[in-house]
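A further point concerns the way the authors explain their paired sequence and structure data. An entry of this sort, consisting of the sequence and the corresponding backbone structure tokens, reads as follows:
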Amino acid sequence: MLTAVIRANGRTEALAATLSVLIPAVAGGTIGHAVVIGAGEDSETERLADVTGASYVAARNGASWALGIERARGDWVLLLEAGDLPEPHWAESVERHLMTAATTPALMPLRGIAALREWGAVSLRSRGVRAGLIAPKKQLLSGRLPASPRRLSVRRERAQR
């Protein structure tokens, strides 16, 4: 089972867009659980997580991936930022990856201008835990990720809300 871990960063509208794109994957059985990471006391984000059935975690010192990963119920985790919108048919691509590369992390790269901004940070830390990463929960918690994840053919866009 896959758990979506989403950093909200105070962007409630963007979080709503991301959650709405994930609904078909929940209905199809690809995603079994979602964890929303909010920045401290953010009642609006917490309420949105509750309404959608997601767990909410308040990160006191900035939104930390680790808090959300620890709360994940699934064996695999999909990391997203609020506003990330995976392309249509992304769930099929992820399911195929899980069937063919059972222990290999994958990356759903960003498309467009946001990808150029993200690339600068990623190239400096190829083993970094970042949005778009799909990895086994145990690998993420242990910090033992392979040097480079397998790139999926599907991409994600980031809503600018």
Remarks:
- The beta strands are 2-7, 31-39, 55-59, 76-81, 84-86, 106-107, 133-136, 150-151, 156-158.
- The chain has one domain: 2-158.
- The two ends are 30 Å apart (CA to CA).
- Residues 2-158 form a domain with the Spore Coat Polysaccharide Biosynthesis Protein SpsA; Chain A fold (CATH 3.90.550.10).
